[in-house]
Amino acid sequence: MRTIGIDVSKATLDVALRDEQGIALEKQVKNSPAALRALLRGWVKRGLCQKSTLVCLEPTGHYSLGVIKTLLDMGQPTWMAHPNDIRLSIGMQRGKSDKVDARRIAEYAHRYSDKARLITPAYLGFAELRSLLALRQRMITQRSGHRVQLKDNALYQGKSIKTLVKDELERQVKSLERSLKKLEAAIAALIAADEVVQRKKALAQTVSGIGPVLASELVAHTEGFTRFTTPRQMVCYVGCAPFERTSGSSVRGRTATSPCANKRLKSLLRLAALAAVRTQETFAITTNGKSSRANAP
Fold first, then answer.
1. With contact defined as beta carbons under 8 Å apart, do 82 and 31 qualify?
2. Domain count of the chain?
3. For residue 8, what are the CA distances in angstroms to 27, 41, 264, 282, 283?
4. 74 φ, ψ to 5°?
5. pLDDT 10s digits, 177-206
6. Measured between alpha carbons, how far is 207 from 211 in angstroms, rounded to an integer?
7. Do 96 and 154 sit in the same domain of this protein?
8. Per-residue pLDDT, 297
9. Residue range(s) defining the domain that contains residue 140
């Protein structure tokens, strides 16, 4: 099976083609849809690349979105592999460059092609949703910082400076609030554009403690609850699954969760759980696959 590894950077794409004998071709092109399309079409004409060739790359935020869209438009099977999986599969490393990284990605895709999780066109919509939600969180953090300064820092300054600082902070807070309203409207419109996603978000909000923000985050990060096939995978992803830490007769560590997790989702789920247990509603508890009912205190 032939595989292609792409190392994405801001300005360039390092592309490596691997066939049954090893790395066959390497090329660096500009990070643009036109340059990538021209390269792959040239390889196709030479019989070096086919529609069945698996393309693998690492997530690099908005730098890779254009690459993904181009590959999907060309009908190329595309796999977004986790950087830690690639790094751990290599073993000991000496040296690093974009060219070498592209080779390693191609080798990884060839070796673990049976584990490939191909990207669908819906991925781009969820990527946009995650981007908007991340921007919303940054703006909320900025607004909270300005509000703290209004209550604290401005109180200990001279009268003239205090008035200037207070007026400026209040202006920035109001500006952020207006921007947040526009952003939240854009998030709602993006979700409402897909009836299936909208219905899944509404169903998530029927769970006690889950509001519109957490429901949107869950939909975005689980790609409409299709990313994980078992509840255990989802719990591991948010960092709530306990793992045993023992070795032989000398290591008897406490069972603990892993730091490799989506900490944003973990924090939101914790707040949702606290909100749920404070209500007087009855909620379901699932243990060993069996569901029982319990009353919140």
1. no
2. 3
3. 12, 19, 25, 49, 46
4. -85, 0
5. 999 999 999 999 999 999 999 999 999 999
6. 9
7. no
8. 46
9. 122-193
